[in-house]
Amino acid sequence: FGQTLPFVIVQLAPFGPLAGEPVESNWAEVREAQRRVAQEDPYAELVITSDVGERLDIHPPLKKPVGQRAAAAMNHLRFGGSDAALGPRPKDAHRNGNTVFVSILGSNAGLMAASWGRPGPIMLCRTGADRGCRFADALLAGDGIEVAIPESFEPDLVRYCWGAAPICNVFDRQQRPLGPFELAIANGAGE
Question: Which of 11, 46, 68, 145 could join 38 via S-S bond, C-beta 3.0 to 4.6 A?
Fold first, then answer.
């Protein structure tokens, strides 16, 4: 079709068991691969589906929001415009003392944490020989999420909404969801 053909990637919707503790998830790994492809390819956009799935049905029942988001993504690819039109997206994560700050793009309408008032589920993870993840407490802070690092834990990664069918609760004020992600944590306050 040629290298400049724009396309949208419809993210895998939640499907499978709920997790009461941090777990590895092949479903989440595929979602993260989809996010990274869309982030790195200027002719691709990601359609977030974390809020339209039914964890016991592989075919999400809510088709209209997916179609509307796909149309907005294709419109953005074809005609450009503000990234805010696509909803909130993770930018990067930086450690500052005992917290990790995750910068969020496209949230010019502001962020909100539905239901329990705090963003979640958030995990901090270590890689290497002492690999492991822990759930972490987080707060919305400006254009991002501030995550508290548990005592005596040195994380390398921050994950949001990780698992087969997590209940994700961060949205912008236009009710567009922040999609699942995994980001490496850099040292310092960032830009």
Answer: 46
